[in-house]
Amino acid sequence: MIFSKKLISWYLQNKRSMPWRETKNPYHIWLSEIILQQTRVAQGLPYYMSFTTTFPTVFDLANASEEEVLKLWQGLGYYSRARNLHATAKYVANDLKGIFPATYKDLLQLKGVGDYTASAIASICYNEAVPVVDGNVYRVLSRYFGIDTPINSTKGISEFKKLAITLMDHDEPAEYNQAIMEFGALQCKPKSPYCIVCPLQDSCEALKKGNVPSLPVKLKKLKVKKRYFNYLVFSSSDQETILQQRVGNGIWKGLYEFPLIEGEVVGVDEIVLNDIFQKIVNTKEYEIIPYKEELIVHKLSHQHLYTKFYIVKLNDSLNGSEDQKKVNFKDIHSYPVPILLSNFIEAFFKKDLV
Question: Could you say which protein family the record assigns here (predicted)?
Answer without folding.
Answer: Belongs to the Nth/MutY family.
